[in-house]
């Protein structure tokens, strides 16, 4: 069992108010919030009808933003 957990020793963790969270979780949260804000902006501007397959489009926005945040903060 200990042999299998050896790969977790170098996983990036972030301290948030005394609790440690995996970095990917924080990046995914930032991506989800940014995609929700982008959806609101697109709705206010009036481009909601021009978005093809909205569910997939906003999911793709979330994934892209998540990866960009990961690369900016944790890419070496």
From TrEMBL:
Keywords on record: Cell membrane, Lipoprotein, Membrane, Palmitate, Signal, Transmembrane, Transmembrane helix
Membrane topology: Multi-pass membrane protein
Domain of life from the UniProt record: Bacteria
Record-annotated membrane-spanning stretches: 20-44, 56-75
InterPro entries: YtcA
Predominant location: membrane
Cell compartment(s), UniProt: Membrane
Isomerase as UniProt keyword: no
Entry keyword annotation includes Plastid: no
GO cellular component terms, semicolon-separated: membrane
Protein family (similarity comment): Belongs to the YtcA family.
Entry protein name: Uncharacterized protein YtcA
Source organism of this protein record: Asaia bogorensis NBRC 16594
Lineage: Bacteria, Pseudomonadati, Pseudomonadota, Alphaproteobacteria, Acetobacterales
